[in-house]
Amino acid sequence: MSNDILKRVEELTKNGRSEVPSWTPRPAATRFTDISDIEGMRIAGKLAADVLIMLEEFVVPGVTTDQLDIISHNYTVDVQGAIPAPLNYHGFPKSCCTSVNDVICHGIPNDKPLKKGDVVNIDITIIKDGYYGDTSRMFFAGEVAPHVERLCKVTQESLYLAIDMVKPGVRLGDIGAAISAYVHKHHYTVVEEYCGHGVGTTFHGEPQVAHYGTPGTGVILEEGMTLTIEPMVNAGKKQVKHTGPDNWIAKTKDGRLSAQYEHTLLITATGVEILTKRPEETRFF
Ligand code: MF3
Ligand code: CO
Ligand code: CO
User: Fold this and answer.
1) What percent of the chain is helix, strand and coil (3-state, nearest 5)?
2) Residue 211, in any domain of the structure
3) Is 106 close to ligand 1, i.e. is its CB under 6 Å away?
């Protein structure tokens, strides 16, 4: 089974990465009123989600994160006519982030094959017509230990409970506090060094979306804002250490596992639209 997949991976990656077309950025914004902008964000969000869906079958023991990177890059460029946002972003060398086991975020794809039982976050950001879609999820290489699944489940649930709270008038401190309370209840910790962010016609804009906070404080959500929530949850201590080129790679200081899930959201008049929702996320309608 997995051998057939690895053969397809060889085939799909043998010519390396496709050339990225040049593009013109739109003026940076993370809040929109025009329906054409909102439609642009919907399209970008769907394309980012589609990359994660497309990748699923290729995340098997023996595949390298470099191969996953090339597959995602070429799909984005050749099939979607879009641009992988991480490539060359502040010197980031690859087209997506692949964060394996104790890597919290910003893992750089490399030539090391995944082993059975590894867990990897793949974080995809694409640009379509100047609009950004940003989303990530955990993938398992073969079967993983129950404690690994549990960490991922709690992390994903912390994202979902945050999304459930999103509507105009809610403050970001309320959302951060709810995420960290849920995580702590399960005896895990929240990474504080990295946040969600406004996303729109720019990759990282206002507001910062911390995954911890004080209720009743912080930015008040308003209709038309587009932002990410992307909790990083550690099995052990919350502390981070940085490694790799330009210190891009964030790992847990204690070497224990970390998990992350991310969605791009639009604040609507009455609540929220998940722009990067995947079909298996059936609890949302
Ligand atoms: N996608 C990440 C985020 O959720 C940012 C990655 S920056 C990169 O904000 F340069 F590492 F790609
Ligand atoms: Co993000
Ligand atoms: Co991301």
Assistant:
1) 30, 25, 45
2) yes
3) yes
Token pair of 232 as six digits: 């990083």
Kindly give, in sequence order, each residue whose CB lies less than 8 Å from that of residue 271, ignoring residues fewer than 6 positions away: 166, 167
**CB 202, CB 132: distance < 8 Å:** yes
Report yes or no on 283 lying in a domain: no
DSSP of 193-261, one letter per residue? S--EEE-SSSSSEEEEE-SS--TT-SPBP-TTBEEEE--EEESS---EEEESGGG-EEEETT---EEE-
Please tell me the distance between residue 20's alpha carbon and the centre of ligand 2 in angstroms.
Answer: 21
pLDDT tens-digit map of 146-169: 999 999 999 999 999 999 999 999
Report the nearest-CA residue for atom 11 of ligand 1: 106
- Cα dihedral 162, 164, 166, 168, rounded to 10, equals -160
Domain count, the chain: 1
Ion ligand 2: residues, CB within 5 A, are 134, 228
| CATH code of the domain in which 133 resides | 3.90.230.10
User: Which alpha helices (H) appear in 93-214, and where do they start and end?
Assistant: 146-165, 172-185
**Per-residue model confidence as pLDDT tens digits over 269-279:** 999 999 999 99
Q: Is 67 exposed, middle or buried (0-12, 13-18, 19+ CB in 10 A)?
A: buried
Please report whether residue 111 resides in a domain: yes
Alpha carbon of 195 to ligand 2 centroid (Å): 8
| Closest protein CA for atom 12 of ligand 1 | 86
With a 6 Å cutoff on the Cβ, whether 229 touches ligand 1 is no
Q: Is residue 281 part of a domain?
A: no
> Quick check: 160 and 192 in contact, CB under 8 A?
no
pTM of the model: 0.98
Q: Is the CB of 125 under 6 A from ligand 1?
A: yes
Query: What is the extent of the structural domain holding 245?
Result: 2-9+31-274
